[in-house]
Design brief:
Strand content: 5-15%
Shape: elongated
Oligomer: single chain
Number of strands: 5
Length: about 180
């Protein structure tokens, strides 16, 4: 009878050990899966943010009368109201892949006291950003437009903005006076 009691104890211990091992494996799998999903969302954030930046650049470059302006709304990027013909700078209004809400808009007026000015107070859109405070996996190797993403503490620091490159002022050359044919003879 003692032999059966010790057999049950070993069986119970083996089952408990198997449950603990399975629990640990499921925990690691869940953590790995969440990391895979975050990396996917990060790649999607880069794509969607870049689409907005390119759309704002296209809108700005299509300035009528030679003067570039930023759009007032995201709808202006979807259908440019300045043109009689349908001009679409953005195919569709994308959502932030981390929060599944609209991107936070960045005003064209720049920063005031270290804080970005809201679009409502400025009336023009310079770019977009996520509101996610997760830490990015990618910390380096960004394209030139996004070099400021390097070592960002969170995704809300990734600002997809368009800033036009300043054209150099035209060079003025000193013109030499033309020889007067009447004087040289």
């Amino acid at each position: 009878m003692r032999y059966l009691s010790s057999q049950r104890g070993i069986t119970l211990f083996t089952v408990l050990l198997a449950v603990v091992v399975i629990g640990l494996m499921l925990g690691l799998t869940g953590q790995t899966w969440s990391q895979v999903m975050q990396r996917e969302r990060e790649a999607e954030l880069l794509f969607r943010g870049d689409q907005y930046r390119r759309a704002i650049e296209s809108y700005y470059a299509t300035g009528h009368g030679g003067v570039g302006t930023y759009p007032r709304t995201v709808e202006d990027l979807l259908k440019d109201p300045r043109s009689l013909q349908t001009k679409r700078h953005l195919r569709k209004a994308y959502l932030d892949p981390f929060t599944n809400t609209e991107f936070e808009l960045i005003g064209a007026g720049g920063d005031v006291g270290g804080e970005s000015v809201t679009v409502q107070s400025l009336g023009r859109i310079k770019g977009v950003r996520s509101t996610s405070t997760l830490t990015p996996f990618r910390q380096d190797g960004f394209p030139e437009e996004y070099e400021n993403f390097k070592s960002a503490a969170s995704y809300d620091k990734w600002e997809f903005t368009y800033t036009p490159k300043q054209a150099l002022p035209p060079q003025t050359e000193k013109l030499q006076p033309l020889p007067n044919p009447a004087v040289s003879q």
